[in-house]
Structures are given as structure tokens and as C-alpha cells.
Amino acid sequence: MSLFVTSRSYSLENAADIIKNVCLQVNRTSNKRKALFLTLGATVALVIRSVYRLFRVPRSLRHLPSVNVIPLALSILKNEDASTRARTVFASAMKQGNGVFVVGYEQVVQATNQGNSFLFLVERFPKRLEVLSASHEESPSIKYFGTNSVGFVSGESWRKQRKVMNPAFRKSMPIHMFGSLTKRSFKIIEDHPGRQVPILPYFQRVTLDAIGIAGFGFDFGAIEDMNSVWPQTYETIRHGLFSPIVLFPFLDWLLGYIFPSHWGKLNGAIDKLNGLLMDMAKQKREQLQASVDSLTPENEKDLLTLMLEAELRGEGSASDEELQGNLALFFFAGHDTTANSMSFCLYNLAVHQNVQSKARDDVLGVMGDGKEDILPTTDDLRQIPYLEMILKETLRQFAPTPTLMPRSCKEDTDLNGIFIPKNTPIIVELDALHNNPAVWKNPERFDPDRFAPDGENQTRFQGAAWLPFSAGHRGCIGLNFSLTQQRILLAMLLRKYTWRLPDDSIHRDGIKIGNFQNTTPASLVIEFHPRY
Ligand code: HEM
């Protein structure tokens, strides 16, 4: 969801439309050279204008400290991690503004531990949909997610959708399914030469099958089949959506001209995945209409069943577009975030072998050290709190959603004693909050003990300082789902393997971030060694 950090561009839509119209003339006019010249001229003017606006803080926000865009851009280009960026780019503005500061133009970024102000922001103000709708209608992100899914809407529409979905995430977690998938996934590790495994694709396959079965009652078959159409198509979309060239959605249409094959491939993959998801929903709807599934108890129904049943009762999705947006959102949010988080977790334990050993000792103490795969029970997990401490610390360091979607300040607001004028877009910058030295002691250090019962997280803070899933009513619906799956994956991997970074790893001198929009490790390979 961090994808929408590109909100800077929304107010440039008129200029983009003008250039687009000029561009269309290229195909119509007899004087093609002249039209081409006009197009280029208008494009350069637009780029200069947007660059200028990136540096200019509007008068109404000049009372706030601002972050210089050049070091920020350089830090992103250098693939720096969040803690380095917090130190080198955000630190001074964060300190001066008590956590409230401006980045670029018209953006207030909040990175604070002042308790209520966070919840105040995310619950009171609506998500800023202009970020989506100002993009051209052919914008790939709009094409994929739509604008009506539960993650994007606010007010009554949000309440109605979330009420239908909540029961699917409040029932007890599918522990056995998570365990079985993990066990099946060991074959992927065994099949890699030298058990050197590109770790993100590995976790993506396991987590995709989990959301498929638990969320949609559908087996994507990603673990068993390397070439399954689902992960393959999704990979094309992920690669396209998070490539730096889509940082400027107002230029989507132009990029389509400049990179036609990239655009064609991306749009083709989006059409394909959306089509597959809607076919899956159609089949399920037909089953429900034929009452095939009527024996499933209410509290065991998957998310898709709940959504379709509500639709059949006339209380569900207002349109096919809303259903499609929700399927796309759950497909993406339901697995990519968890896969990224697990990848960073394995990295952390590869470079902190002492933590890996301690975690393994705890797991073996509860689950035994036999030479066979064992699926943990809920009770087992409860007895190994260290796993959750490791996962929480990893989520602090590498929040998979580094910023929340922008909110629109609907009225003049006082934030930590600082005046924020009406209509200012506000972004909660989780990365900066989690790596703010005024909030966390030595934030660059990996230290799971922060989350011990008497650790820093419990004793130091009054307000919310750990927010990878956001919080409150608008918090992540999949928090328990994700954390439970992560604990099971970690417990079973610790029992079966030890792991390290290969000698030639590009991460030996520190982690390299592959994508800053949804924090991803760059080409991370983990080398596993079997224990039995
Ligand atoms: C490590 C894993 C995950 C992280 C860090 C994460 C993070 C977040 C965050 C920060 C938000 C709030 C976004 C905002 O307000 O702008 C959010 C919302 C959401 N997440 Fe997650 N998420 C994770 C896993 C999941 C999973 C497994 C699912 C589904 C099974 C999921 C589904 C959603 C949905 C549907 C929303 C929108 C909720 C709403 O607006 O009512 N997420 N997530």
C-alpha cells in the first residue's frame, strides 16, 4: 500500500492532461516533427515544474522544518535501509519539529511517539483518494487495485465492507494449514543447488498459498508448481508496479509511449490476474447459489465466501469493480508483506547467529529435537515468546509498509502543538518513527529484547512507537494472520535448518534494500544446512 507515497503528483493532473492532448496530436497532425517538438517542450516544462514544486514548501507550511529532497532521493537511489535514512535524512527535521515535518511540497510527515496523535490522524481523517484518482485512468495501480476496495475508501463505505470481512479474521487461526504448507515448502529448499535459496520468492510462494486457502478457499499451487500462473503473473505485476518509473503516476500515459513493451506487459499481466481472480469468484458464487457450501459452519467460512454471501443477500460489494479491487488487495497485502517480513527475519538471524541459536534452543525445548518435521500447536507457540520478539523487532527495523496512505486533514488541526492547516495531506512515516533515536535507543541495532515483558517497548513509551500494522479501527485486518504464519514458519525452519549468508552475498556489509515502496531486500539468498 505504500505504493501511494507518490501522492505529490496529484495536483499536476491538468498539466499532464495538456501534454497528453498535445501528444495525441502527434498521430493526427500532418506536421509530425512540429507536434513532436511541442510534445517534448511541454514534457520538459512539466518536469521542470514538478521538480521546482518538489523543492518548494508552500507558505502555509513554512513554520515546519523540512527535509531536503536531494539527500532523500540519493538515499533511495543508494538502496539505504530505513535506519540509515532516518539518521542521514530525517534526523534533524524530526528533532526540530518534535516528529512533525514536511517532505517535498504539501506533505506533512508525522513520525512521533506522542500517543494519541497517531490514532487521531489515521482514524479521524479520510484516506486521500485524489492520490489514486488523479492518476490517469489507465494507471497500472488503479487498473490493478481500483479505487473502491476496503483499503482505500473511508466512512460508511469502509464500515460496510469491513463488517463483512472482520469475521474471517476473528476466528481461530488456521495453525494446521500454516504448518502443512511450511512442511511442503521444505522441498523448495531441498531442490535448490547447495540449498542456496532466493528467499523472497520462496516465502512469496508459501504465503500466497496460505492466503489462497484461508482467504479464498482456493489452492494457488504456488509451492508445488514453480511455473504456476498465479505467482508468475503476480511477479510481472510486482516488478512493474514497484519500478521507479511509476513513481510519477501523472506521467503514466507518457511512459506508456516511451516504454510500450514494459507497459504492455504490465497491463497484460494485470488484466490476466484480475480475470483469473474474478473467474475464481464466479465459480465460488455459482457453488454458493447451488448451496454446495451450505454445510460450512459460519465461523469457518473463508473471506471470499463471506463477501459473496453478503453480495447474494444484497449487503455486499456495490459493484464488480469493488469485488475485484478487494480480491486484488487481499492477493497482494495478504502475502507480499508477510513474505518481505520473513525474508528480513531470516537475514537478521543469519547475521546474528547468537539470536538464531537461542531461538532454536527455545523451539527445541518445546517441540523436541526429533529427526522429523513437527507442526507446532497453539500451545507450543505460546511457550516460545522469543519468536514473536524476533518478528516484532524485524518489523520495527523493516516495516513492509514503510508509510501509511496519505490522509487528508479535513480541518485546521493541532498536532503535537503544531498548527496544520485544513486540506494538508498527512503521511505517517513508519520507517522514520521506528528508527527515530528520540524514540528507540540505538535504533540501528537488532535487539529482540526490546520486546521482552520488561523491555524498552513496554517500559519506555507512553504512546504508540511500534506501528508496522498501523493501529485502531483502520489498522491491518491481517495482523494475527500474518504473525501466526510467521511464528510457524520460523519455528519449523529453526528445527530443520541452520542458515547463513553465502560467502558471496551482496548483503555482507549490511542489508541492501531492493525496493523502498514496499520494503524488500535486494536479491537476498540464504544458505540452509539441514539438521536432520
Ligand atoms: C507483515 C505483514 C503485514 C503488514 C506489515 C501490514 C501492514 C498494514 C498497514 C500498515 C495497514 C494500514 C494501511 C494504512 O492505513 O494506510 C494495513 C492495512 C490492511 N492490511 Fe495489512 N499488513 C500485513 C499483512 C496483511 C495480511 C496478511 C492481510 C490479509 C490477509 C492484510 C490485509 C490488509 C487490509 C485489507 C488492509 C486495509 C484495512 C482497512 O483499511 O480497513 N495485511 N496493513
Automatic annotation (TrEMBL):
Its cofactor is heme. The chain crosses the membrane at residues 35-55. One of its GO terms (molecular function) is heme binding. It comes from Absidia glauca (Pin mould). Keywords: Heme, Iron, Membrane, Metal-binding, Monooxygenase, Oxidoreductase, Transmembrane, Transmembrane helix. The keyword Signal does not apply. Belongs to the cytochrome P450 family. This is Cytochrome P450. Heme binds at residue 476.
